[in-house]
Amino acid sequence: MAEIPANVEQPTQEQEINPWSVAGATDAEGNAIGFDYEALSKKWNTSLIDQALLDRFEKVTGHKPHRWLRRGLFFSHRDFDRILTKKEKGEPFFLYTGRGPSSGSLHLGHTIPLTFTKWLQDVFDVPLVFMLTDDEKALFKDSLTFEETLHFAMENAKEIIALGFDVKKTFIYSDLKYVSNHILMNTWEFSKLVTFNQVRGAFGFDGSTNIGRILFPAVQCVAAFATSYPEIWTDEPLKERKKSIAEIQCLIPMGIDQDPYFRLLRENAHKMKYPSPKPALIHSKFLTALQGAGGKMSSSDPTSAIFMTDTAKQIKTKINKYAFSGGQVSIEDHRRLGGNPDVDVSYIYLTYFEDDDAKLEEIYNKYKSGEMLTGELKALAIAKLQEYVAEFQERRKEVTDEVLQQYMTPRRLEWKGTAQPKVK
Ligand code: TRP
User: What is the pLDDT of residues 188-206, one digit of tens each?
Assistant: First the structure.
């Protein structure tokens, strides 16, 4: 008879973060212990955003840093300081971000990097290109067809527009629908610079990975080259890519899980026929799941997320029912011992949406001392979330097919925050 091993310790699971799956670390009992973002930054060699960088941001732009910067939701970057130097000198640069349309509608967590990108677009007053990776989602999810992801892309685009992007400065496109010669030239040229060993290392591919997945990183990367969209920079029809356009630097706001793509890009951008500067990156953490800091909001678990289509009533129910509480079990205990705001999901959501630093601090202290009860804290979070989602839903009603068409038409963009590039 095989011996039953005595007292086997379950291995502690480390956090796993890559563009297609994200899981926090768990302890020996399998309990979620969350994400260690500082360790990740160290491992991937990114720079943490510090007060000096925020002070410089304020000095250069004249804007107070967004609360998501002040409170560390955007916590890490690569070369963001170089973008500030561009802004200071008035030299052209642009924003690029994207969304993988894996379902027909967005949850709150999806909107964070996008709402932040809109804010950057307002503050910097520069062009934005927005890529919908409907190709990626069908390639990486066996259950989804290209027809489905293309349909999701169009539905998502309407919600993305409802986040408030300025149509004059924004070009949104679907990978499956929009392919210019310029994008193709860049994709093939970039793919020639990257070996299978490199993508295997970055993404964990192996010999049975379909070849679409292997090419796709080149598609997501070349969107950061200004030469992929000559039409946004000039009315002149350009048959070829131009050196002067290639020199326009890009800033990419993203969830930290997307960083592996852009490391590949930063290693190779200068090797293109028309070399580009390394794109700058700014990384966000994941939005905490309703169940608490160990998880992230996920579409596949409706009890973990607030959806942008949720009604005020649904939001209220979800927070009251599922939002992890740092309060004590009885009112007496709570008054006596106080609550723990640091693990309380309602408090954490208030840090995302209550802009007033002094007010937030007051809430923190009152909850911690036991003066504020869990029900009161939840009510504050519910009101803030309802407001964010209701404003979104109002704007969403205005986004017709015609409006969508405007954003998705390749065209010269108009901005004032930097000089116009000289096309030579
Ligand atoms: N791959 C991303 C996703 O699945 C979408 C994306 C494309 C993206 N380009 C990007 C995200 C640039 C951030 C920045 O969601």
Answer: 999 999 999 999 988 989 9
